[in-house]
Amino acid sequence: MTGSGKSGGRIIGGTRESATPGRAGRRLTMLGLALLCLLTGLTMVLGYANKARCTGPGFDEWGRSEPSFQERSYGLVCYSDIQKLWIGRDVDRHVFPYVHGGITEDGSLYGGVVEYPVLTGMLMWLGAMFVDTDAGFLAASALLLAPFGLVTAWWLGRLSGWRALLWALSPPLVFYAFHNWDLAAVACAVAAVFVVHRGGASLRRRATLGAVLLGIGFAFKIYPGIFVLPLALYVLTGGCGGAEGVSRLDVRGALRVAGAAVATVVVVNLPFVLAGFEGWLASFQYQSQRRVDLSTNSIWYWGFLPYHGSPAFQDVVGLVSPLLILASFALACWLGWRRRERTGTFPWIQVSAAMLCGFLLLHKVHSPQYVLWLLPFFVLVSVRWGWVVAYLVADAVMGIGIFRWLYLNMIGASNGIHSSFAAQAVVLGVWGRAALLVGLFVAFLAARSPVDDDEEAPRRPLIGGRPE
């Protein structure tokens, strides 16, 4: 039961949580938001400079940087998927994605098909439109992606105040802002939280718009789509403090949220389905057929090294991994529902963060830039700083170690666990990160969100112990 009683606090887990300062105590001025965006921009400039170390100085006939592109990208830890995928997906040939391509029996893509959802494919096509080298592609893609990083900073600042410095000044933004095209999906996920909690309309309308944004995020990278479920449960239970005075669940509102997300995904994808169904389908087939190997960089590879060459093992992982992910989603939602019974509010942001932890831990692919997906939740959910620092350290150790280890492997140098610091860093990073994801799953679900605090502020007692 929600305890918004005479003391102005809430009952959580049997104890009264004191009222914390609301939006007025955390709101950034326009100057503060501008400074936050400026710092984010400077961090992304460093990120671009880091990746640009891999470009040039010369280029071959296909526009690939030389000399020794691959060795430099691993050895100098300046690798990016953006620069790498200039060759191999017909990006350099300016082929419009998905329409004319497909996937071969051995899992190779052809005809302009890329392994990402359609809006990311469009970003790739746009970034390549006026360039003819991988260096130009990296620069153009950075220009396309930078605005997403800036608006993410702005929205996080509006939602959580100076805690958004975790985004603006974070090492992952240097390492991975322009590693892949993830900033667009991250911006959609944060935008959804922003409109739900700062939209100014009715809960149904705010949540419906949030679901549309999550559907658009799905069309960039799949992961924002998983947050539709906790958002629907948030609407189902009446939103912030919704248990009080609500006699029945808002089933209609929850279905409207789910329907808006599905409709958005259909509308965005339908033109590509009609123009080239085989090419559109190939991007999903590629991911579903992807084998667990070194490039997937997940616990399924590092935890089962002797078995990854076995077709039977690949089949088992292809079944077990999604089942465990779904189980982690169900557990997060159930624990969120239990918390809602105590507090009156379904903690959809915290549940979304926990679901993402389950996905990152159990999915067969864990690319380095996925830390960008998690980073906004460190801003939006008030977990202890120790969790944040520990995860960022483990991620940095992993991110640097894996590329140095790949470099040693490429040049034939000794790279065993007993003779290579890079190999030791990979082991520490992989298992340290995995353990932290388990801990964060629990920590997120137990933590408060400053976003919720702001929403509750108007409902707190004002005079004589009576709520407004």
TrEMBL record:
It comes from the Bacteria. GO terms for cellular component: membrane. The chain crosses the membrane at residues 28-49, 109-128, 135-156, 176-196, 208-237, 257-282, 316-337, 346-365, 385-408, 420-446. Keywords: Membrane, Transmembrane, Transmembrane helix. The keyword DNA repair does not apply. Residues 1-22 are annotated as: Disordered. GO terms for biological process: GPI anchor biosynthetic process. Residues 1-12 have a biased composition (Gly residues). The keyword Plastid does not apply. One of its GO terms (molecular function) is GPI mannosyltransferase activity. This is Putative membrane protein. It comes from Halosaccharopolyspora lacisalsi.
